[in-house]
Protein 1
Amino acid sequence: MTGAQLEAISEPDFDAQVPEIDVYARVSPVHKLRVVSALQKRGHIVAMTGDGVNDAPALKKADIGIAMGITGTDVTKEAAAMILTDDNFASIVAAVEEGRGIFANIKKYLMYLLSSNIGEIALMAGATLLGMPLPLTAVQILYVNLATDGLPALALAVDPPESDLMQRKPRDPRTGIFTRPVIALITAGGLWSGIVNLGIFVWALNSGRTTEQAMSLTFVSLVLIQFFKAYNFRSDTNSVLKRPFANKWLNWAVLWELALLALIVYLPFLQEPFGTFPMSSRDWIIALAVAFTVSPVLEAVKWMERRGWLRQPE
């Protein structure tokens, strides 16, 4: 469409045709502004590139204006939100991918930590409301918060980008991190963790174990469930089975934490301050089985998200 044709067409007709027009020729600054506005009216996230003074109004109006750093004028650079220092359009794609990756990793980090904290609160509050002994000591809670949650959370902050990251639609700039799917994952993981760990504590007490032994088993179960959650929270949509061990830092963090957990459970000089007891292979299997149950729960929430059941209302 040429500038003359654009000048002649009515606003409603242009709004209807704008998604199908690929090339504009001989347009004025007013026309560029009109194109950007029409696309935004249809709900598109619009990026505008430019280097001349006449591009400035459209650059300012677009969701993100991108100016050329080498050939661009000072006015264009002032109006733009981003400047390409090499004037290479491929840099835009790289910047979008980097930005999406950073945003996704911040989301993973927050989902993991908040879900872990909800699980611990639910466990302690549930035991208190039921009139039972506290299932964890202060040192155990501190260890879970500082060590068990800390390293995997840091590893999630440098998680490699998901394979479909650049195939996704642009995120609505008015939407924050805590969307319905994210809140559902955080809540489901946290509450399930609290329920099953409280359940293993009650079972351990009823099986004839002392309170200290029941606390030790619950502590190990809680640590293990955090590891399963860390792998599940590598994506809020894709299954955990899709490239499960792609994050080498997370793998090393979990292995390191497992080694520390074994030392805390079996070394006599660490058992007293941490309130742990040597566990049999049967106890380890029970704790591992209980911890694993969080994965199907989180996978079910992701499945509902992929089906569109948890999406924000339009």
Protein 2
Amino acid sequence: MAFEHIAVIGAGAWGCALANVIARAGRSVTLAARTPESASLVARERTSPRLPGIALDPRIDVVAANRVAADRRQVNDAVLLAVPAQDLRIAAAQLGQTIERGTPVVACAKGIERGTHKFMTEVISESLPAARPAILSGPSFAADVARGLPTAVTLAIDDGTQAAALAAALGSATFRPYHTTDTRGVEIGGAAKNVLAIAAGIVTGRGLGPSAAAALITRGFAELFRFGKAFGARPETLTGLSGLGDLVLTCSSPQSRNFALGVALGKGKPTDEAKAESRLAEGAFTAPVLVEMANAKEVEMPIANAVAAILAGRASIAEAIENLLTRPFRAEG
């Protein structure tokens, strides 16, 4: 499990950041853009349009994604899928038969697939039966990671030995991956926190104050924890980097696309316009799916429900806030 060569699929902000991480760790890395045009641009400029001013490590080989699938000579010891959650199935399927049995294929997206209600590792399992599905998540902004600022994340693979080996291969002085076998807990934390970050942004955009923001994050985490418990996540995962840690980051910074979407909504921007401007905010896609899955398990998630209702146009922000503030008083838990 040397993991000497690793491929990253997706040359957006997160893909470029992860490619830099792998190069700094001393591994050979191929960065695959999803179109030949994008690959040509990134290879020529040595940067991503989504990370202006941040250079790609010169050791990174930039190609088009179809080259990775077609080149049978290059054996990748691991593949990181740095594409949006709703595109992950297509990106995984494009790898075709090039994945050797047992190779970790790591989802680096935070969401749940619409329509199927599948978690990211389940999508990988269905698309690439030979692969070993994995998930990378945690409190991390692409710009920070790309610059080499200190960051800690969680890597989950159901094989503990393989998880530890890949975490060690990716790790460096400024990028610290903790490892676990709780794949479900890691992907639930990443998906649910995006929805809650939209709610936190609404609170900020509405000018409801830091006390309300703190209450929102705390009660939001209670929802995330209940949902995770219902779907078999471990408590220590939900209270760790990929759960509570990521929630705190994305609920408190305008660098978060989900938080920024919420701020725009809170300031009165029309829902369709705000969603169009924040088309990469995974929480907008995840909110209705999260609520449907919670309802199926009879998990109470009033904040997530409010976000889904606002995004769908079923409730105004004023109505959603009133509904939350007039809920019956109850014991904390």
Protein 3
Amino acid sequence: MLAAGIVGLPNVGKSTLFNALTTGHAQVDSYPFTTIDSNLGVVPVPDSRLRELERVIRPEECVPSHIEFIDIAGLVQGASRGEGLGNQFLGNIRQVDAIVHVLRAFKESNVAHVFAEVDPVRDAQVVETELILADLELLKRAVEKRRKEWQTDPRKYAAEREHFESYLESLEKGTPLRDLGLGRFQRQELKALGLLTGKPLLYAANVSEEGYGSGEMDPWPGSDLQASVVLVSAKIEMELGQLEPDERVLFMEELGIVESGLERLVDTTFRILGLIRFYTLVNNKLRAWEVEKGTRAPQAAGKIHTDMEKGFIRAQVARWDQVVEHGSLQELHTQGLLRTEGKESEVEDGDVIEFFFHP
């Protein structure tokens, strides 16, 4: 399961947001470094297509896809040099696949902040700078270790050397590696190296409760940040998560909230990870599965079970909206509307798939 780390400066609402996401019980308080050990929670991905399929098919069981969120200790200036809980913070964030950076965009005098004024853009730059500095130190060490091999066999390691040197040049200019438009192989290379600024990033702007959902909240000054931004009120979202479904609907209507900020946050996290969803219906169990965009059918089958990938024969595929329209895969089969896909076909977002394989 892919994981996203919730990061940010101390007292920006990370643990409150984590509790809202997971309906968890991470400790929340108003002094720095409340979170020392990371909290982990698994969150279902909101999926309107799955709900429609469930409504039509009426399976005995319906299982959405999931993402793991990790609440990581707050970072301060100097974390790349070990200040605060810097070493622990950097070690934890190296393990995640994506970063959700919580920015404080609310003013509340009884909640301490590491700076005198609330400025989410400055806070974003502080954390980004620390990540860049940490990457620079790590990459310089990696280059020194590899330099002897590069000199021993220049042709064999030419591509690796070119990659490492381009990463180093970008970091020295203050450019995070995610901005380089790297391909899949290079993203995997960055992950193997433990580099932080190559990870997908989104900002969760934690705004005040006043006017949340109605468009009357304090102006958001961070529209020029070079990443996706989702506005949330962590406090309200946590309150929503503690209500019964009927009460939650009423409360959202009162506040003018059409779509939960958490739903937008989880959906955006899913998207920046480059994931898509496909669906299966087996033994009256409807289930969503997440795979990277571009995954071929056998590898998608392997997501369910390794034997299915090894013995893959073919896949019968329909679009989710075709299933909703006609009521079942069987009806689509009867009308000749199912398409047969082989080993080279790529799974598309929203496919409903039946896999055939040698056991």
Protein 4
Amino acid sequence: MRASYLEIYNEEIRDLLSKNGSSKLELKEKDNTVYVKDLSTFVVKKPDDMMDVFNEGSVNRHVGATDMNDQSSRSHSLFTITIESSEIGPDGKSHIKVGKLNIVDLAGSERQSKTKAEGERMKEGIKINLSLSTLCHVISSLTDPKCTFVPYRDSKLTRLLQDSLGGNTKTVMIANIGPADYNMDETLSTLRYASRAKNI
């Protein structure tokens, strides 16, 4: 069992478990599988090991204050647990099975007029909204029976989540919404987003 932890910050991939966390990593593809070159992975043998890896990576995430949230996520994060098992098949040979669990924390969609973001914060917000918009297009494409093309490649987020959204997978989305009437537009937008995702 192995664990890795990355974030997508301003459309760049960063390893949250690396000593050199500021370096940007590249997406690669081999045998129709997308992976991140040079991403750290740690072998974990018990739940405490996994929590140690998760907590270490969480400390390194990009967060910042906006007018709506004093600890706002400024990136999307992807914590991946990979499990490999080997068993002897009827042919007497060893066969390896691989399972993967992606736990994704999406940064919240933002309106600049409410966050009052400027400079670097505004740039972060634009990148967050662009990748969320691409994810929305991917979800819409997957739910449209007439669609012949799914734009996975338009964002690093959707590229990394390609095998979690289509194919032999189970996906659960938890949508966080606020009770304040001040946030009604954002709440409705989030619920529409989740409703579309349910139709995949």
